[in-house]
């Protein structure tokens, strides 16, 4: 859209470590059904490819810009974009220039985790709506800042937990609410993914085609290493959050959604590296327990990286326990129930599946979740969102709490109202990151 629709103030030149600050006035625009909405996708190595496909599948939506610190990757995606859509797309390495572009209406974020909050807040300040990949935040304090920014600048922010747009999963949640398996007291999240050793490649000269300063962004800057770029940053604390904060966010989100709870008051975690002598910092195996004494509910969460059994046939998903049966969600779009002591099969559902309710798979998945986001954007109605920014804060925050309990090595007491640990200065140091100059998370209250 044109600059008359979107405006903001830049403090310093983009060539340096410029900070983008809030506009004096941010208008809430409602796009007509026939009005084209322009999208920039930031981070195009992994999930960014699905973002491109998802937005290009929408009516009157155009991906106009791809942004990534890796110019070689940008050129590859530009070529494939041209071949797939017979359209040109602009390339940009600097995220700040993308946010400064008044012709861009939506920022779609598939960057590494440590960029999610800052880019979301900058985009909100610039009057743009945001689709942000999971986890929404890299730490709990960032998640709260994202919620505050979306509210202050009245922006539409959708969290990329596409199972919330699955008709089958929504039907499963309805069964839990209606007492189909009785009083639901426990949820179990499963992340059993095949994660091999990543080795240790040591430091190496920075490739000319990568702007490593921009890739690092708000994180502490270390010498370049292929241990980080492009995928294995997931397994290092300064950039990722381990698999509970990677794949696991879908499952932490569903645990909290199904139990209808927020943050817990007691957390404990145990795990470690038992398989590989590699450069990963995060635990390979992690078991976390989140207790809700007042609600009389509990969440168990388990991450396993290698050879393992399934649970109820599931390797990635959730199991809910009630006093009349269990409900099993397998992946993102199907569920089954088993009732009573004899485990009698009950209701089941699968998006587009012949054995379930015959639901339309297109209504779920990334494309469907983006369709839900686009409806909210066009109407500027946050209530339409299936995965609003508040869910990003909570589901990401649950993973962060488990990681903090692991790193401190003890049972933690947490005050959800203050979002602080009780009488535990060490644990509280993990709630907020340390940010490089020019890439600080803005205060937005």
Automatic annotation (TrEMBL):
GO terms for molecular function: nucleotide binding. Keywords: Signal. Residues 1-28 form the signal peptide. Residues 340-350 have a biased composition (Basic and acidic residues). Residues 204-255, 369-440 form the Gfo/Idh/MocA-like oxidoreductase bacterial type C-terminal domain. The keyword DNA-binding does not apply. Residues 340-365 are annotated as: Disordered. PROSITE patterns: TAT. Residues 37-160 form the Gfo/Idh/MocA-like oxidoreductase N-terminal domain. Residues 351-365 have a biased composition (Gly residues). InterPro entries: Gfo/Idh/MocA-like_OxRdtase_N (IPR000683), Gfo/Idh/MocA_oxidrdct_glycsds (IPR050463), Gfo/Idh/MocA_OxRdtase_bact_C (IPR043906), NAD(P)-bd_dom_sf (IPR036291), TAT_signal (IPR006311), TAT_signal_bac_arc (IPR019546). NCBIfam families: TAT_signal_seq. This is Gfo/Idh/MocA family oxidoreductase. It comes from Membranihabitans marinus.
């Amino acid at each position: 859209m044109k600059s008359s629709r979107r405006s903001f103030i830049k403090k310093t030149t983009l060539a340096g470590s410029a900070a983008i600050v809030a506009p004096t006035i941010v208008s809430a625009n409602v796009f007509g059904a026939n009005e084209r909405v322009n999208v920039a996708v930031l981070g195009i190595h992994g999930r960014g490819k699905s973002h491109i496909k998802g937005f290009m599948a929408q009516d009157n939506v155009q991906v106009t810009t791809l942004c990534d610190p890796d110019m070689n990757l940008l050129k590859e995606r530009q070529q494939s974009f041209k071949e797939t859509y017979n359209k040109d797309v602009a390339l940009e390495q600097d995220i700040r220039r993308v946010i400064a572009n008044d012709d861009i209406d939506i920022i779609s974020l598939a960057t590494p985790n440590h960029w999610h909050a800052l880019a979301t807040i900058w985009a909100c300040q610039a009057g743009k709506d945001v689709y942000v990949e999971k986890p929404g935040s890299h730490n709990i304090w960032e998640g709260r800042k994202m919620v505050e920014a979306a509210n202050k600048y009245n922006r539409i922010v959708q969290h990329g937990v596409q199972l919330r747009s699955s008709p089958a999963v929504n039907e499963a949640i309805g069964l839990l609410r209606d007492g189909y398996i009785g009083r639901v007291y426990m949820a179990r999240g499963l992340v059993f993914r095949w994660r091999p050793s990543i080795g240790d490649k040591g430091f190496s000269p920075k490739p000319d085609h990568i702007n490593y300063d921009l890739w690092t962004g708000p994180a502490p800057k270390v010498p370049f290493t292929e241990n980080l770029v492009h995928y294995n940053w997931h397994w290092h604390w300064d950039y990722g959050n381990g698999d509970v904060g990677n794949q696991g966010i879908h499952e932490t989100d569903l645990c909290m959604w199904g139990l209808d709870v927020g943050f817990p008051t007691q957390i404990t975690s145990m795990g470690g590296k038992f398989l590989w002598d590699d450069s990963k910092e995060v635990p390979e195996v992690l078991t976390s327990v989140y207790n809700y004494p007042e609600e009389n509910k509990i969440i168990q969460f388990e991450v396993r990286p290698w050879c393992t059994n399934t649970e109820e046939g599931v390797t990635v998903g959730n199991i809910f326990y009630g006093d009349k049966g269990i409900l099993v969600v397998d992946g993102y779009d199907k569920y089954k129930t088993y009732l009573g002591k004899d485990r009698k099969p009950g209701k089941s559902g699968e998006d587009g599946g012949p054995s379930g309710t015959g639901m339309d798979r297109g209504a779920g998945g990334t494309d469907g979740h983006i369709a839900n986001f686009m409806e909210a954007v066009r109407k500027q109605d946050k209530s339409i969102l299936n995965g609003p920014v508040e869910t990003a804060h909570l589901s990401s925050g649950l993973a962060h709490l488990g990681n903090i309990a692991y790193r401190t090595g003890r049972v933690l007491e947490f005050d959800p109202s203050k979002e602080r640990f009780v009488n535990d200065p060490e644990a509280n140091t993990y709630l907020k990151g340390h940010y490089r100059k020019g890439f600080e998370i803005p205060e937005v209250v």
